[in-house]
Structure formats: structure tokens, C-alpha cells
Amino acid sequence: MFDFFKRKKDKNKSEKPESAELDSALEQTLEPISSQPVISEIEPQPVDVITEPEKAMIKPPVVEEMVVEPTPVEIPPVVAPNELDITPSSAVAEINPDVMVDVPVKAVAEEKKGFFGRIRSGLSKTRSGFTDGLASLLLGKKEIDDDLMDDLETQLIMADVGVEATTEIIKRLTARVSRKELKDSDALYEALIDELQDMLAVSQKPLVIDSSKKPYVILMVGINGVGKTTTIGKLAKQFQKRGKSVMLAAGDTFRAAAVEQLQVWGERNNVPVVAQHTGADSASVLFDALQAAQARKVDVLIADTAGRLHNKDNLMQELEKVVRVMQKLDPSAPHEVMLVLDAGTGQNAINQTKHFLQSVGVTGLTLTKLDGTAKGGIIFALAKQFGLPVRYIGVGEGIDDLRPFNADEFTRALFRHDTKED
Asked: Which residues are annotated as a binding site for GTP?
């Protein structure tokens, strides 16, 4: 019995130091907390977070606005000409590093292709749809009759070649058949290729930068989603490779992503970008950009504009205002009005060209996304109806996939199945 009390007493003695150690550790933990002000650990809150006064009696932190430019661009004070219908403001090129913009660039490890091979590869979908259909119809030394000509006419129209261009082609081919110049369908196929190539020849007029213009102003126009901003970035890189100094103007002020995407292109290529806040007057941005480019004696100024529907008169009038404002500084500007069209829109591209041509006097076309359509015949319809120069064609996502248009190379890549790639 006494042994029991003795063991219990010894147990209590052994537990007491452990409890004392816990109390001591607790006091050491609480001591620094009570000795420091609580508010010193409060970090500045984001601007959009409201700090409740009863929880923290501190003055909200003042967050200074940071403006970061891709490269130092000194914009001269704006001196507006008389009767200017806008109030220019200083150019700002804000960059948000948290916004990741996907700028399509080919992987470095990808095997580089030659000029012809790149176009041929990019037109693979068009060949599989448009060209292979024609080859299947005509090749095989078939007899040329009315049914064959009707089927050919249908396929051309279905491939977006257009009624006007198709009618002209069928008329010319029928005349050659009547003169016994084409003995079978194989000869008809070769004659068709010649007719299509001749139709495109009128549109083969490469863009030439007039070095006497400082800067040479290229105004990019088109509806939403056709690839204007991406085309601008690719053009800027190509002009740089040719030894030209380039400046970009972010005139699409309706979409913050468009401004940021253009600034990413500028950062990557070390090209200055003139921009303002979202919702700013596009004409004001382009006025500032042109004034800055003149002061810096830049070779080429490429101006982006907001995508607009061709059938919205008020939006088209805003585009006309942009042209008027630029002419306050340079009566000859813009020197090139480049309409960007999506090849996949088909005959709607005809309507877009018609309206933009009436509003701002389009001087050249860039046809994008030819690699993504199985039709591709719209380029023939545009050449036949308008005869406008096709400056560039887009046959892929890489910078080198924006190619100067060449009628012979295009038709060879589209129709010649036995041609090897470079």
C-alpha cells in the first residue's frame, strides 16, 4: 500500500517539470506578439479591397500609377493644327506584365521551309478541297461536254471563286473548246489553271515603301477577328529585317487586349508603341503617333484601328475621321490603306471590300488564314471584281508565313501536284 503512494508521488514529480516547460514556452511565444504593434504587420491592400475602419485604424495606402514603356519613346508636345476636331493627348505605352498574350510564333526547332514549300504546305487544306475536287472532275482524259462544263461551273462557285469570275472563266474556256483548242478534260484542266493565274496577275503588286516619306504610314483596317494586330506584328518584324525603323500605333482603343498584344510585339522586336488608355479617341492616338514618328524620322509607321462592321455607318465615319486627322500633319497620309480579310469568310469578303473601299479608299489587301480554309477561291473573286493589289497572304502562324503575294507561286502551289518543295 505504501509503495502505491510512493509511486504516485514520484509520478507527480516527473510530470511537473514538463508542465513548467510548456508554460515557459507559451510565455516566450506570447511575449513578441504583445510587444509589437499589430498594425505593423498589415500589408497594403489592393485598390479594389475596402478596409473596414473598426478592424484597422490606418490610413489606406496610396498606390502610385506606374507607366512602363517597352523602349524610351520621347513624344514631343502636341501642337494641334487649327480647326483640328480632336484634342490630342500625350502618348502612353502601358504594359501589364500579368497579362499573357498569345502571339503565334513557330517553334525554333521546326524545320524551316523554302518560299514555295511554305506556301504549298499552308495551302494544303485548300488543295484538298478546292484543287483536288477540280482534279477529280477533270483529270483522266474525259470527253468535254455540256455536263462537264456545268459541273466545273458548280465547283468553282462552291469554292468561293464567285459568280462573276466563274462566268468569265467558263465563257473563255467554252470558246477555246469550240475552236478545238482543248481536245480532252486534261487539256481543259491545264487551260483552267492558266485562266486562274491570268486573273490573279492584275493583283500582283508588292508593297513598296517610299523612302521619301518619313514616315511611310500604313493604316490597317478590317472587321473584328481577321488578324489585323497579328499581321501588324509580323509586318513590323519583316520591315526590321529589311533595315527599316518601325513604330506602331495602338489605334484599337476599344479592346485592352489589342493594345497589350501590340505592346508585346513591340517588346519582343524592340519597336516603340504609341498607345493610350482603353476607350481613348483613336484619331488622337494616331495623331500623336504620327507626330512622334515625324520627330524621330521613323521609316514606317503601322497604325492599328478598331475592328468595325462594314455595314455600320457611324463606325465607318470614325475611320474617315482618323484619315482626316492624320492629314492635318501629312496631307499625303496614309500612304497605304491595307484591308485585312479572312479567307474563310468567303463571299462576305466582297461586301467588306466594297464598303471599306468607299469609305477610306483601300489601296491593298492582305488575305489571312488561307491555311485554315478548304475553299480559298475568294482570292480569284477579289481579283476579278476589284483588281486591288494583294500585298500579302497568310498561310500559317509563323512570322515567315505572311508572304508577299506572287500569282505564279500561288497557282503552282495550289494546282501543281507534281511540284517538289524547295
From this structure: 222-229, 304-308, 368-371
* Binding-site residue set: 222-229, 304-308, 368-371
Please give the Cα distance from 257 to 235 (Å, whole number): 19
What is the CB neighbour count within 10 angstroms for residue 281?
A: 20
CB neighbour list of residue 401: distance below 8 Å, 6 or more residues apart: 106, 118, 122, 371, 394, 395
Strand partners, 217: 301
* pLDDT tens-digit readout, 378-415: 999 999 999 999 999 998 888 888 999 999 989 888 88
C-alpha cell of residue 45: 491592400
Q: At residue 376, what is the residue type?
A: G
- Least Cα distance to 400 among 101, 114, 204 occurs for 114
**What is the CA angle 81-215-242, rounded to 5?**
170
Q: Is the CB of residue 160 less than 8 Å from the CB of residue 341?
A: no
Whether 70 and 272 have beta carbons less than 8 Å apart is answered as yes
Predicted TM-score of the model (pTM):
0.71
341 three-state secondary structure: strand
Helix 256-269 with 228-241: angle, nearest 10 deg: 20
Half-sphere exposure of 305 (CA within 13 A, CB side): 28
Residue 234 grid coordinates:
509580323
How many whole angstroms separate alpha carbon 219 and alpha carbon 232?
10
